[in-house]
Amino acid sequence: MSEILAPAGNAKCAAAAIDNGADAVYLGYRAYSARAGAENFDGEALEEILKKAHFAGVKVYVAMNTLVKESETEEFVKTLLEVWNSGADAIIMQDVLLGRFVHERYSDIVLHLSTQAGVCNTEGARFAKKCGFSRVILARETPLAEIEKIAALMETEVFVQGALCTCFSGQCYFSSFAGGNSGNRGKCKQPCRKMYSYDRNGFEERSYALSLSDLCVAEEIEKLKRAGVSSFKIEGRMRRPEYVAAAVRYYRLLLDEGTEKEKVAALSDLKRTYNRGNYTKGLAFGQDKRFLSRAVQGHIGERVGTVKVLSGKYYVEGTFRPVSGDAFKILRNGREAGGAAFVGSTERGFYISSSARLLNGDGVFVTTDTAVNQKVLSGEKRIPVSLTLRFCEGENAVAECGDVRVFSEDFLSHAQAHPLTTEELESCFLKTDTLPLDVSFEKITLEGEVFLAKSRLNALRRAFYEKLFRARTEICGRCYAFQPIPRSSRVGKNEKTALIASDFKDIENIDVAVFKPDDYKAEPPESFMRGGFEKFIYYPAFASEADLKAVERLLKTTGADGIYAENYGGISFAEDKNVKLFAGTGFNLTNAVAVNELLKESVVAYYAVSKELDEREAAALGGEKAFLLSSGDIKLMDLCYCPFGKTCASCDKKRVYTLTDENGRAFPVRRYVSAAGDCRFEVFNCAKLVGRGLAGMGKLLDCSAINDGGRAAAIAEDEEAQRAFYGNYTAGHRKKSVL
C-alpha cells in the first residue's frame, strides 16, 4: 500500500492532515526535532494527537532527528523511550550509529532513518538496515534509478511536495558557521534564501542564487509508485494547516485516481496555499528549468490576471472573484514588484490597492485565497463503523462492533407501554458524541416488548463508544525502562597529519593523503601516485552508482589504502572492496556512543569528529584513530545540481567560482565533475579555519579550494603563519559550540 505522509507542525496541521486523507503524520517532539521553529509537541499534546490519529487509523512518526551531543545522549535515549512508550508508530533519527545502539537494547522500537543521514545509494541503505532501521527516508537528490534499487532492499520514503534544501541532506553547515545556528540541530536560519552573486558572466547581478523552487512531483508520483516507494512524504512542518490540507487532498486524488478536473482544481488550491518558484519535479527526475527560484524567494501563489492602470487605479480583469481578506503578489518580468490587497469587484474583474507603483502588464498572483482556505479546511474524516445491536426481552442488551462488545447492566424488562423501536435504537446510536464516526447497522435484533429507560439506553451507548475508542487507541505492552549507557574510553593518541586535496605537488610533512578528484573520470596525479604517505580516495557525500565504480577504479589504479567517506554508505563500500575506511567529517560524529559503534566496524582506520564541536566536546571523542579538522577550508554545502541552470554552452567551467553575499563576503565554490560527466559544486566558508588542532588528535587539513596545499601543510603547526597566509580566517567552533 502507498502511504501519504503529512507534516504536523502543530495540532491544527495534524487535524488537517487526518481529515483530508493522510495515512500517517510526522511531527516533532519538544526536544531533538530538526524543525525546532515549529510548535512541536510535549508529552500531553503528543498523547492527544496519538489518540486522535490512531482512532482514525492514521500512524504517527515522531522526529527526533537532530545530532546528539555527548552531554545529551542519556537524556536523548530517555526521551526516545518516553515517546515510544506513549504509542508512537516509529521514531525518525539522523544518527544511524546511535540508532544501532538503541536498536540493540530496545529491539521492538521501530526506527526510520532521516533524510539528514543522506542515504542515496544501496550501500547506505544496506548499512541502515544492518543497524536496525526498517525504513530509509531518501535524500531528495536520489535519482529514480537508485530509488528503485533501494526500494528492492527495504522500505523507502520519498519527498513529493514542499521546500527543498539547496545542500545535500545532512551536509549543510552554512547556518552553523554563519551564526552558530546549526541545521543539524534544528536551528537553521536559511542563509541559502538570501541574495548572492557569482563571478560568472550572466550571473553577476544579485539574485536568490541558492534558493530552490518548491518540489511538486505531481503526476510523476506514478513512476515512484512503480519504483516500489512505500511512503510519499509532504514537507512542511513550518507551514499552515491549509497548505497541509491542500497537499494531502491533491496527492490523495492522484493515488486514488481522481478525475482530471478534480486534480486540476486541487493543484490550483495547493498553489494558492504555498508555491515557491512555480514548482519543480526535483532531482529524482533530473534538473529542470524551474529547479532554481532565483528571481523570487517566497510564496507566489497562482496567477489570476494582469494589472490595468485605469485613472490611477489598479484593475484586474478576469474570472477570479476575490473577497475581503484575499492577498496578492505582483510580479514584473518574473521579479517581485510588491504586494496588493483586494478593494472591490466589478462585473468583469476587481480592483486592488498596493503601496508599490504598479504598471500595465504586471502579473497578479493570489497568495491568500480565503475561499480556498475555508474549503480545504472544511473536510472531516469520519471513520466507518458497522454495529450489531441485540435487544431481547429477558436478556442483557448487547452492542458490538468487531471485537468490542458492551452489555447492559440489567436484563431487559417487558414494556408496560411504548416498547422500544428499531428507529429509536438507530437514532440513539447515531449520536457518537465527539467521535468522528460514520455509523451503519449490520444487524438490529429486537425481540419482545422491550423496555429500557432512555437514560439507561444513553448510558449503554456512551459505554459502548468509550470502549470502542479505548480499543482503537490503547497502547499495550510498551514499558521500556532506561538502561544506563556503558562508558568505554578510547585509548591512545593520534599525532598524524592528513590533508585533503586534488593535487599533492610540493606537499611534504603529511602522513595521510586524501585524493579529491576534480574529475572522477580523469587519471590521478603523479604527485598522489608516488607520494610516500597513506592514500585514501575521496568518497563524496552524494555518490551515484557511476561514482562508486569510479572510486573503485581509482582504488585499483593508485593502490590506495582505502576511502575517505562523507557518507555512511562508505562503510558498506569499504567492506565490499576490502579496503580501509577514513570516516570523514560528513559522518557528523558528535557523541561517544556513535564513535564506539563506528569502531566496531573492522574496516575503520580513522575517523574525523564533527566540525561543529568545540574543543572540549571534540576532546571527549578522541583516541588513536581520531582526527579533528584543524585548518584550511571549511566546506559548508554540497550542491548536487548546477547553480547556473545547466547553461553549459556558455559556461567558462572554472575550477573555483566566488559566491558573494550582500555584505561582500566571498565564498569559494569549487566545481568538480562526477563520473557521469555532470558538474557538481561545493561551497566553502568565506574565512579559512586556523588552528593547531588538539593534543592527542590527528590534524585534518582541507585544501579543496586552496591552490598552495604545500604552504598550508607547512604551517599546520603555526597558527600565526596561517593567519598571515589566509588573510580572512576564523577559529570556527573551537571556542563556541553550535546551539
Characterization of the model:
By secondary structure, the chain is of the alpha/beta class. The protein folds into four domains: 235 residues, Phosphoenolpyruvate-binding domains (TIM Barrel, Alpha-Beta Barrel); 75 residues; 91 residues, no CATH class; 182 residues, TIM Barrel (Alpha-Beta Barrel), CATH 3.20.20.70. Helix content is 26%, strand content 26%. The strands form seven sheets. The chain has an eight-stranded parallel beta barrel with strand order 1-2-3-4-5-6-7-10, surrounded by seven helices. An eight-stranded parallel β-barrel has the order 23-24-25-26-27-28-29-35. The radius of gyration is 30 Å and the shape is globular. The protein starts with a strand and ends in a 9-residue tail after the last strand.
Q: Which keywords apply here?
A:
739 residues, alpha/beta, TIM Barrel, eight-stranded parallel barrel, eight-stranded parallel beta barrel, 20 helices, 36 strands, 26% helix, globular
